[in-house]
Amino acid sequence: MTQDQQYREFIDASLECMNACNYCYVSSLKEYELASLRDCIRLVRECADICMFTADALSRGTIFAKEIMELCAKACEACAKECSQHEHDHCQKCADACKRMIELSCVHSA
Amino acid sequence: MTQDQQYREFIDASLECMNACNYCYVSSLKEYELASLRDCIRLVRECADICMFTADALSRGTIFAKEIMELCAKACEACAKECSQHEHDHCQKCADACKRMIELSCVHSA
Amino acid sequence: MTQDQQYREFIDASLECMNACNYCYVSSLKEYELASLRDCIRLVRECADICMFTADALSRGTIFAKEIMELCAKACEACAKECSQHEHDHCQKCADACKRMIELSCVHSA
Amino acid sequence: MTQDQQYREFIDASLECMNACNYCYVSSLKEYELASLRDCIRLVRECADICMFTADALSRGTIFAKEIMELCAKACEACAKECSQHEHDHCQKCADACKRMIELSCVHSA
């Protein structure tokens, strides 16, 4: 099994999470109650960046897989915590994608 | 239909292509006949970067979608041309993923 | 002269512009009149991404230099247009950094 | 002092290191003794990516500054160790830029 295959599930989840975060970012910037979403906007955008970086690094077999996955899990935790406070559908979906990442992260670090 | 949905197929193909390019990159660097793969290594790595950038930008509804997709199609053309010259399985698969991108690009620019 | 040296000025300006855009992004998200800055927030963040991608690609001698610099100039034009409409110091500085990029871009495409 | 200013020195060093790594990457791929540079090529390219990601994240005031700087320092350590084994000028310069990052990292984590 190549390193790429070993991390396949994590890579796919990272890309899903990146998509959910980017969608939440764009949608949040269109919401009427923009002021309440300042932290959300920053966090989902940052989480999207970190997920993308993670997927890219893992797919080329980075030797820093452990560290990068830990960073990604931390970003997803912060993002899930923030987004789960907002009732918008895009926030709830983003929180779900982040929670999936945290689960997978636990499997890998176990 | 959101911009995200409109470009969904292109985003998914970009991520597939990024994976194929990254796999070809890592595999090429392990090949015995390394010297014949100099251009291949550089091109697949660059194509991977551009595909990732494209997927990320499209998934957050970039207003530069047309320009970015054109750049991505150019990178995929150059990469497909290079990789199809090499018999390695990873090169052939990378060329296939790139050709798929070129097809999709034609649909969008039509 | 290596390709890296040839593009040195453009790379440095891209990194300056990335910094100005990122600073404007963070500052805009803290402003009281957030609603008037929706487009600004999205554009400066996107321009930052494109500038970073441009600097990275040029510094490793991309064969797509022309296309990437054109994309970057377009992003800087849109960003300069948006930011120059806002009186905030961070917006004005961001607009200035973008205008510098447009000037350099004209030199290279001349 | 803003977070951006606080990390200014680290950001500038990251961008310098990214440049040195990218230059080493491109130059290594042109060397005659390519086979001896397999690890070098992969590591400098990865280090360049991580440095760029670090500079970008710090310049927009990431809340994960500590984790990202630690990851960056680890990448620079591995890259410095590898590059200092090769006599090529581009490898030596890359190793120097990486060592500068490790020093700065120690200051910040102290």
Automatic annotation (TrEMBL), chains A, B, C, D:
Leader sequence residues: none
Q: What is this protein called?
A: Four-helix bundle copper-binding protein
Q: Name one Pfam family in it.
A: Csp
The record's section on PANTHER family has: CYTOPLASMIC PROTEIN (PTHR37310:SF1), CYTOPLASMIC PROTEIN-RELATED (PTHR37310)
UniProt xrefs under InterPro entries:
Csp_YhjQ, YHJQ-like
What is the scientific name of the source organism? Paenibacillus zeisoli
